[in-house]
Amino acid sequence: MVVLIALIRAIPAVYSFFFPELTNPETERLAINKLSWMKSDKEAAHRQQKMEAPVLKSTLFNFDPNLIDADDWQRLGLSAKQAGVMARYKGKGGRYFKKEDLQKMYVISPEMYERLIPYISIGLGKDRQRQQLNPEYTAKNYPAQQKPLSIPLNTADTLQLMEVRGIGPAFARRICNYRQRLGGFYKKEQLLEIYGLDSLKYAEIKDQLSLDDLVLTTINLNTALFDDLKNHPYLKYKQINAIIQFRKQHGNYGNIADLRKVAILSAETIEKLAPYISF
């Protein structure tokens, strides 16, 4: 009997050992809520930290994207790398003709474009642009321009050519280099022979250019050597050799008609070359 009573009293302890009591539901709920609050607090702290993270300082001002440089783009909020892209585009002759053109630049995000658009002023003018960038700059008082822009094609330097709407540094250099090789332009349409200058670009710039009375540089075919002719864009090396050999075999050229006897020269080539040769 004593043994039986001892076994009955031991049953709860044994049961508890093999079958532990389940967690109190209320205690479990409170623990879950505490974990949830801790997670929420952590996320809130992360958001606050992100909001308080330092951002690139920018200064917004009225600007013409055709005139500003890399430093100015950085002042507007672009990174050094993005500003470099904008500067290289300008350096290669890239131009903006309306505000929307800025959207074509992949380094200008939609958000950045929306920030900048109220300040974009195409054709702002160099003096006004300089005043925006440097308040101490005093604009020069030029007399009002009465006539439309007319830049002399045969005597203008690169800076003068860049005053033409549609001509940037790259095209200005190409025009001057090609003019040097030719000996001068005798018609505006010769600009179409310049690399990268297509009919659309020509239509944009032609009315802003004029043909001055500069005398074209000519080459005397009766005394010219190979080196005198090799850089002319209208002649290839084989044609130059043919011109010189024909002269050696038949004597000096007297006129254009004699040049037509050189079989390798087409009528089109002779017509283009005529203003640049003498006898």
TrEMBL record:
It comes from the Bacteria. InterPro entries: Endo/Exo/Phosphatase_dom_1 (IPR051675), RuvA_2-like (IPR010994). One of its GO terms (molecular function) is DNA binding. The keyword DNA-binding applies. This is DNA uptake protein ComE-like DNA-binding protein. Keywords: DNA-binding.
